[in-house]
UniProtKB/TrEMBL annotation:
This is Cold-shock protein. It comes from Cytobacillus gottheilii. InterPro entries: YdjO.
Length: 70
């Protein structure tokens, strides 16, 4: 039996509630995952305004290898 055109094995996307930082500017929609922030209370990397904490349902990303010293 032939495979259909464009058919792929779709892996389930895993999501979780993640702490993020959102820009407080009404004209900027930038946000950053908490584990990717550059300081304890980050400024927006786009417009330099203050950012506030929030929670967002996001795809799971493992970034622990970035900080590994091995």
């Amino acid at each position: 039996m032939a495979k259909g055109f464009g058919r792929r094995n779709m892996e389930e996307v895993k999501t979780e509630e993640v702490k993020i930082w959102e820009c407080t500017s009404e004209t900027c929609n930038c946000w950053v995952r908490d584990n990717f922030k550059s300081s304890e209370k980050p400024l927006c990397p786009i417009c330099n305004n203050e950012m506030k904490e929030n929670i967002k349902e996001l795809q799971v990303v493992n970034n622990s290898s970035i900080f590994s010293t091995k």
